[in-house]
Design a protein that fits this description.
It comes from Heracleum sosnowskyi. The protein is of the alpha+beta class. Helix content is 49%, strand content 7%. The protein is built from 13 helices and four strands. The N and C termini lie far apart (103 Å).
Length: 336
């Protein structure tokens, strides 16, 4: 899920200029406000009540109870805080291009254009070693307690080294597993806590119930919908054929389909006037190569116009001298 995490990081970084514009550079850069508030905003392993308590503590610490923009964002917290989406399946937002984009970004930090084959091989080995270190750090789990096995199910309480002050409870059996982080329900992929508990429970094969049909090559319809209690009456062949054979009455107007992009969401964030002005100042302005002035370029430079005028005058004078010499020659020939 590195591509999903990177996508979330990109989304957070795109919101940073807006936060700086609303709160000021001093509060964002000179204090620990951003680091403390991000701990509760972008965490998907906490419950909504934990987020609300943490938000109020940070706001009270920095005396921002009367801030209009923060109060507005808190009122609409159910629309953008990940803690409120833990019980909802969000894996439909994962795009097919996210995995390749994540790999390209990771390997671009080690490789350069124009590298020889030997340099490419050495840097590729370094990239693979770094990737193994990252995966090993993510799998660093510490099992705190192990409950008794009841009806073929055992409960584990473990601590994730990367997530401090949080204990996860995992219920494991030979055919299923359930973790308190709810990543499987939200992303459709088992979490590392689940794999750690399955490994300790001596399960050598991933249970079929932990692999959604949408991730398989032979994906079947209606199976994934049943898992969440969604009706599948429109998914079987008989119901679809019945709807197609019943022709609606009246005139039918068929419009051309809307074009859609196959890469990215297609949505752009609205930028404020201040951000546009900052980007305009950062943009490099064209300078005149003759006088290094930014108002004009070489073609319209006054110095260039003077030089061009002098060249024209020299050409005209040369033509006059040549014409005068020809006239003198003709007069001399007529006299002789």
């Amino acid at each position: 899920m590195s591509h999903v995490r990177r996508a979330a990081t990109v989304m957070v970084n795109r919101q940073v200029p807006r936060v700086h514009g609303q709160l000021g550079n001093f509060l964002c850069k000179e204090t620990e406000f951003i680091e403390k508030i991000k701990k509760y905003i972008w965490s998907s392993v906490i419950e909504p009540d934990e987020f609300e308590q943490g938000w109020k503590e940070v706001i009270k610490e920095f005396k921002l109870e009367e801030h209009v923009w923060l109060s507005k964002m808190y009122d609409m917290r159910q629309s953008w805080i990940p803690a409120y989406f833990r019980d909802k399946p969000m894996y439909g937002l994962i795009r097919t291009t996210s995995r390749s984009e994540s790999e390209n970004y990771f390997f671009s930090q080690f490789h350069q254009c124009g590298s020889t084959l030997s340099e490419f091989y050495i840097r590729f080995e370094s990239a693979m070693d770094k990737q193994q270190e990252i995966l090993a750090a993510r799998d660093d789990m510490r099992i705190q307690t192990i409950g008794p096995e009841i009806h073929g199910m055992k409960c584990y309480e473990m601590k994730d080294v990367k997530i401090k002050d949080k204990i996860f409870q995992v219920e494991v059996s030979k055919t299923h597993a359930n973790c308190s982080c709810k990543k499987f329900l939200m992303c459709g992929i088992p979490c590392r806590h689940t794999f750690c508990a399955l490994n300790h429970f001596e399960v050598v094969k991933i249970p079929r119930r932990l692999v959604l049909n949408r991730w398989m090559k032979n994906a079947e319809n209606k199976a994934s919908l049943k898992d969440f209690g969604i009706s599948d009456e429109h998914q079987n062949k008989e119901s679809v054929s019945a709807e197609l054979t019943n022709k609606p009455g009246g005139d039918i107007t068929i419009h051309p389909p809307l074009q859609c992009k196959n890469k990215g969401s297609g949505l752009k964030r609205l930028r404020g006037k201040r951000e546009k002005a900052v980007d305009k100042l950062k943009k490099k302005k064209r300078q005149c190569k003759l006088c290094n002035y930014v108002v004009h370029d070489k073609r319209t430079c006054p110095q260039n116009m003077k030089v061009a005028g002098a060249k024209v005058q020299a050409k005209v004078l040369t033509k006059l001298l040549v014409a005068g010499a020809e006239v003198e020659t003709e007069v001399a020939e007529m006299l002789h």
